[in-house]
């Protein structure tokens, strides 16, 4: 038991947000959630002090799931939290940590501390290359001279701000988790994606951003925008893609429908109460059992690979071996990093419409799509399994929960091992199928494009988090109205 | 419906970070209002710095 004792003094002393004492009224919870959201938006609008230009966003298209904002105090967004979570999932899923977070309070404290410690480390590791490599957060050299600290001094100041911003995101998340509804991470993702989605629907040219679908159709109907000669190839293309965006509208709606439908697809295991005869219940094993959350981990893995590529390119320039990556305008167009980059939009693969950059052959695009599909489907399934194991939704943990609540599966012996056997017939299979399905859906949505160019993963996450949030709010209200329910749900 | 009597067993939506009920007595506890106040002050501070110095 080496590392636990060694790390204990540090991990148990990590600063935490105090827990509420007793019950927090639902209105108060909403208030906390809303205030955190406002503070979050406020901070994304604060530009870093000492920047000498805009710089290019290192996260690129991943920004919608990383949250935060390029050049703002919240530059790293939830990136470090996600990366730390990946590390913990892999370690915990493979049972390398040796922590029993289900039963042992001591181990729970250690797990919490380790989690926080990893996020702090990851924040520094993410922020440092962004600041010190140059192109992403360029330091203001004139400012360095006038302050007498040089460019490196300004970079240090920028680093400090980005680092503090990253830590603040962690604490804001903790506030929402403990005092509010849902979680901060989920909240920040839906905030960003919804903002983009609303922009993609409502925005007009006068705002200086891209034209939304409503404004486009107003233009089409009143003759300001031309689609080309009716019923020709060009006409269909303009209707489907820009400016008509019918395909994007279709994909967006499809994702909404599929996610909401899939939330209700479940295998129900009948339960009966051991003592109260006639009291029956059901344990639902949902198709998206592990939810789409593991997807964010797969995407973040891809984002981190691209992150390494960007850093290497910014350091080596064209000295980067062509087999690793060739870049043009900051985007990979060849080599390993090209093939590992996920398909983000139609521009990445619709070679037959001449959308892809020149010099990329269809077979190269095919390989890239194939790799992306394999990555997302296999990765989705693997992370879903780890997720189920580490969050206490696996066969063993659920069997114990059912046992503790005094329920049993009718026709089976009242014994956790027996219940576990039954659970093992359903949970792993459903998890793998659900994870792979969500992966496939995310890639498909990215390929067809969505309204406001929110990524497929972003949209999937947003719809499912919102759905979960809705369920949680409904449950909260139920508990508000019937205080007895609080005891039943074990929240008091 | 089976209710989870396990402490911290109820998973909230998109909780990538897990928080359990158990806490160490040594841990430094911060009031959430302090965090919020710090966030706002930090934002204002950086903004004022940008406006005055640069």
Write the layout of secondary structure elements.
The complex is a heterodimer of chains A (492) and B (54).
Chain A: H1 2-11, E1 16-17, H2 26-44, H3 63-66, H4 79-93, H5 105-132, H6 141-147, H7 150-179, H8 184-202, H9 213-221, H10 233-240, H11 246-264, E2 266-273, E3 280-286, H12 293-316, E4 326-328, E5 331-334, H13 336-340, H14 362-390, H15 395-404, E6 407-408, H16 416-448, H17 456-481, H18 483-488
Chain B: E1 29-30, H1 32-53
Explain this structure to me?
The complex is a heterodimer of chains A (492) and B (54). In chain A, strands 3-2-6 form a three-stranded antiparallel beta sheet, sandwiched between helices. Chain A has a two-stranded antiparallel ribbon with strand order 4-5. Chain A is mainly alpha-helical and 492 residues long. Helices cover 61% and strands 5% of the residues of chain A. Chain A has 18 helices and six strands. The mean pLDDT of chain A is 87. Chain A has helices at 2-11, 26-44, 63-66, 79-93, 105-132, 141-147, 150-179, 184-202, 213-221, 233-240, 246-264, 293-316, 336-340, 362-390, 395-404, 416-448, 456-481, 483-488; strands spanning 16-17, 266-273, 280-286, 326-328, 331-334, 407-408. Among the domains of chain A are: 25-180, Preprotein translocase SecY subunit, CATH 1.10.3370.10; 243-297 and 371-488, SecY subunit domain (Preprotein translocase SecY subunit, Orthogonal Bundle), CATH 1.10.3370.10. Chain B starts with 28 loop residues before the first strand and ends with a helix. Chain B has one domain. Chain B is mainly alpha-helical. Chain B is elongated, with a radius of gyration of 19 Å. Helix content of chain B is 41%, strand content 4%. At the A-B interface, β1, α2, α4, α5 and α7 of A face β1 and α1 of B. Chain A: Keywords: Cell membrane, Membrane, Protein transport, Translocation, Transmembrane, Transmembrane helix, Transport. Chain A: It is a multi-pass membrane protein. Chain A: One of its GO terms (biological process) is intracellular protein transmembrane transport.
């Amino acid at each position: 038991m080496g590392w636990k004792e060694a790390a204990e003094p540090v991990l148990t002393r990590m600063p935490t947000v105090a827990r509420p004492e007793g019950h927090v009224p639902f209105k108060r919870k909403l208030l906390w959630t809303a205030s955190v959201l406002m503070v979050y938006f406020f901070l994304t609008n604060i530009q870093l002090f000492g920047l000498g230009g805009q710089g290019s966003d290192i996260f690129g298209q991943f920004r919608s799931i990383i949250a935060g904002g390029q050049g703002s105090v919240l530059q790293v967004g939830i990136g470090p939290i996600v990366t730390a979570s990946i590390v913990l999932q892999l370690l915990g899923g493979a049972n390398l940590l040796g922590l029993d977070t289900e039963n042992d309070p001591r181990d729970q404290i250690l797990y919490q501390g380790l989690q926080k410690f990893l996020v702090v480390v990851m924040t520094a590791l993410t922020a440092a290359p962004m600041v010190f490599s140059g192109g992403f957060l360029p330091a203001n050299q004139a400012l360095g001279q006038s302050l007498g600290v040089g460019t490196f001094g300004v970079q240090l100041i920028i680093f400090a701000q980005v680092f503090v911003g990253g830590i603040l995101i962690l604490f804001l998340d903790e506030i929402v988790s403990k005092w509010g509804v849902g979680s901060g991470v989920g909240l920040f993702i839906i905030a960003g994606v919804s903002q983009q989605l609303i922009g993609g629907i409502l925005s007009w040219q006068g705002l200086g951003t891209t034209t939304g679908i409503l404004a486009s159709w107003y233009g089409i109907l009143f003759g300001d925008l031309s689609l080309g000669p009716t019923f020709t190839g060009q006409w269909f293309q303009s209707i489907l893609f820009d400016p008509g965006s019918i395909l994007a509208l279709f994909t967006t709606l499809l994702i909404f429908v599929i996610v909401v439908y899939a939330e209700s697809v479940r295998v129900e295991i009948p339960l009966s109460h051991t003592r109260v005869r006639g009291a029956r219940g059901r344990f639902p094993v949902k198709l998206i059992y592990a939810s789409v959350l593991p997807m964010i981990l797969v995407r973040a893995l891809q984002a981190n690979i691209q992150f390494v590529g960007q850093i290497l390119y910014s350091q080596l320039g064209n000295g980067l071996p062509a087999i690793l990556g060739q870049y043009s305008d900051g985007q990979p167009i060849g080599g390993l990093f090209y093939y590992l980059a996920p398909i983000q939009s139609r521009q990445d693969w619709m070679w037959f419409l001449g959308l892809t950059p020149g010099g990329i052959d269809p077979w190269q695009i095919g390989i890239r799509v194939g790799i992306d599909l394999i990555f997302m489907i296999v990765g989705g399934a693997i992370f879903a399994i780890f997720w189920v194991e580490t969050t206490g939704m696996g066969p063993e943990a659920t069997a114990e929960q059912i046992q503790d609540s005094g329920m049993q599966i009718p026709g089976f012996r009242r014994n956790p091992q027996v219940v576990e056997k039954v659970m093992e017939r359903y949970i792993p299979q459903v998890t793998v199928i659900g994870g792979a399905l969500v992966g496939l859906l995310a890639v498909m949505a990215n390929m067809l494009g969505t309204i406001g160019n929110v990524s497929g993963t972003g949209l999937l996450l947003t719809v499912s988090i919102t759905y979960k949030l809705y369920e949680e709010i409904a449950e909260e209200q139920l508990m508000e109205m019937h205080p007895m329910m609080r005891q039943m749900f074990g929240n008091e | 419906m089976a209710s989870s009597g396990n402490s911290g067993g109820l998973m909230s939506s998109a909780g990538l970070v897990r928080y359990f009920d158990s806490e160490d007595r040594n841990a430094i506890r911060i009031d959430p209002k302090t965090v919020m106040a710090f966030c706002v002050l930090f934002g204002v501070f950086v903004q004022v710095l940008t406006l005055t110095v640069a």
